[in-house]
Design brief:
9 helices, four-stranded mixed β-sheet, DUF4743 domain-containing protein (chains A, B), Nucleoside Triphosphate Pyrophosphohydrolase, seven-stranded mixed β-sheet, about 30% strand, alpha+beta, 13 strands, homodimer
Chain lengths: ~300, ~300
C-alpha cells in the first residue's frame, strides 16, 4: 500500500451518521444519532437532544458538575451495551488543545461523544554508524486494542490533570522501563492529527510526538505487560513494513511518517507523495462550523 | 503579536474577488475577475473565460504550447500595467507537487493566475555550548521584495526543471557562499504552506524546509547582493523578534516556527497555541472543489 493510504484510512468518516455536540456554546464533538436518541430519554436534562445537535450541560454548569452528570447519564447506555464499560481513566474534554477543560470523560466514552483525544508517542531511535535505527514494539497478544501489532517504542493517552512531559516520563517507565534521567531526554517535535470513524464513534485525535535519541547500550524493557518484544530496526525496514496494511497499530504509521519527514529519510525530490503526506499528517477535525482557526 | 497572528495573516483572502482557473480539467489557480475579463478580450482563445471560471488551453494542448500561448496572451496585460513585467524565470504550474508540469509561467505572473508556487528555505543553525543558534539574514535595502527585512539564511523560489536539492545547492552558493560539500549537508525536514491574497493576486505557496547544521567556523558570505548582513542569534532571540510585526519577510515566521516546533524549542506543555501553530503551518490551498486529498 501507499503511504497516503494510511493517511486516507484515518480520515474516513460519513458525517451524515452524526450530530454535533456542544458544551457552553462550544463545539466539542459528534454523536451518533442512535446514541443521541437514547440520551434524549434520560431524565435530568444533562443532554439536551435536538434533531440537529446535542447540548451538554443543563443544570450542570461547572466542569466537575458536568463530569458527574455526564457519567451518571451514560450509565444506562453502558448497561444496555450501547457504549463500552468504563475504563476508569478520565480524559479532558476541550474545544481545542490549550483551552479550558470543560469536563472530564471516561476514556472508554471519548469516541461515543466524538470528542478530541490527545496522546503522546515517543520515537526511540539510535544513530548507528550504519544509519538511523528505530525501536519498534510488538504489542502483547492479550491487548484489547491491536493485539500483536507493531507500535512506537512508547505511547499513551493523555489523562486529565497530567502534563504531556509528565505523561512521557510515566509511559516511558511503564512501557519501556526507562528511568526519568533517560526518558527526560525526550524532545517534543510536533504532532500528527486525524479524524476517523470507528465502530465506537468518531475519533478526532491529536498525537504529540517526541523524539528520544538513545545510546545502543539502553534497551527498552516493558514493565506493564503491554509489549511482548522490542526490535531495533533500520529506518528503511520500518518504512518497508508500512507497506503492509495491518502490521502496525492503526495510528502508528502517522507517527513514523512524520519522523521520516522530519529526519530527511523521506525526501521531497524522491517522494511524489511528499507534500500530501506532510500536509495530510495534520488534519483539522471535521467541524460543524468550519473555520481555518479550528485546528 | 502572537505567533498565530503570523499564520492567520498568511491565510487571509476574500475569494469572492476571484474565479477558479483550470487546465486540462485540473484546478490550478484563481484569477481576479478584472484580469479574467481583460483576458476574455485577447484573440486566440487561449484563455476561455466564463463568468465562474477560466480554462487555459484551447488549441494549445501540450505543456510547451501552453507555455508559449499563455506568455503571448499575457503580453498586452503587461503593457497595460495590469500585471507586472516578466522576471525571466519560469515556474512550473502543477495541480499538486509531484504531479506533471502542465505548463511553465513567468515567476512575475504566478500570483496573477493564483497558481501554486514552491520554494526552498534553509535553516542554517549552530549547536553552541550555550544553546541552539540560528543564522538570520538581513535583506539588502535595494530589494523589490521586503527590503531591509530579516530572512532565513538561504531561500529561493523553485524554477522549472530544477530539483529541490539542486536548488538548495545553487541558492546556498549564491546567497551564502557555501560550497557544495557544506551545503550538501542540508537535510529535508518537511514543509510549510499558506494561501494569502496580495495586491498581485493569490499566493498558495509551499516552502520545503531544510536544516543545515554548521560548525561555528563557517560564516555565510553573500555573493549575489540579496543579503546585506548575516547574524548568528540564539534561537530565543529569533523567537522574540517574531513578536515584532514587520521584522521578517512575510513568510519567514512560518519557517522559524516550524523549526522551533521540530527542535523542541516550543513545547506543547508551555505553549497554549502549540497545536494551532503546528496545524496552521500546513494549510491546504483554497479549492473550488474542496477535498481532503487536495493537499
Amino acid at each position: 500500500m501507499l503511504y497516503m493510504d494510511h493517511i486516507d484510512a484515518l480520515n474516513t468518516h460519513d458525517m451524515s451518521g452524526f450530530r454535533p455536540v456542544f458544551v457552553a456554546g462550544r463545539e466539542i464533538g459528534w454523536m451518533r444519532h442512535g446514541v443521541a436518541e437514547r440520551l434524549a430519554l434520560i431524565p435530568g436534562g444533562v443532554f439536551e437532544v435536538g434533531p440537529f445537535g446535542v447540548a451538554i450541560g443543563g443544570a450542570a454548569a461547572s466542569p466537575d458538575a458536568r463530569t458527574a452528570a455526564v457519567a451518571a447519564a451514560l450509565s444506562p447506555l453502558i448497561d444496555e451495551g450501547l457504549i463500552p464499560p468504563r475504563r476508569g481513566e478520565l480524559y479532558p474534554v476541550v474545544e481545542r488543545w490549550g483551552e479550558p477543560v470543560l469536563f472530564a470523560l471516561d476514556r472508554a466514552h471519548v469516541a461515543a461523544l466524538g470528542v478530541r483525544a490527545f496522546g503522546v508517542h515517543i520515537n526511540g531511535f539510535v544513530r548507528r554508524p550504519d544509519g538511523l535505527h528505530m525501536w519498534i514494539a510488538r504489542r502483547a497478544d492479550d491487548r484489547t486494542v491491536a493485539p500483536g501489532r507493531l507500535d512506537n517504542m512508547v505511547a499513551g493517552g493523555q489523562a486529565v490533570g497530567l502534563g504531556l512531559m509528565e505523561n512521557v516520563l510515566k509511559e516511558c517507565a511503564e512501557e519501556a522501563g526507562l528511568t526519568p534521567d533517560v526518558a527526560g531526554g525526550a524532545r517534543p517535535a510536533g504532532l500528527v492529527s486525524y479524524c476517523v470513524e470507528t465502530a465506537l464513534g468518531l475519533k478526532p485525535d491529536t498525537l504529540f510526538v517526541f523524539d528520544l535519541e538513545l545510546p545502543e547500550s539502553i534497551v527498552p524493557d516493558n514493565q506493564d505487560g503491554e509489549i511482548q518484544a522490542f526490535m531495533l530496526w533500520p529506518i528503511e525496514r520500518v518504512l518497508e513494513t508500512l507497506r503492509e496494511p495491518d502490521a502496525f497499530k492503526f495510528n502508528v504509521p502517522h507517527v513514523i511518517l512524520d519522523f521520516a519527514v522530519r529526519h530527511g529519510v523521506l525526501t521531497p525530490d524522491d517522494t511524489p507523495e511528499y507534500a500530501r503526506i506532510a500536509t495530510g499528517l495534520r488534519r483539522v477535525p471535521v467541524c460543524f462550523h468550519p473555520s481555518p482557526e479550528r485546528a
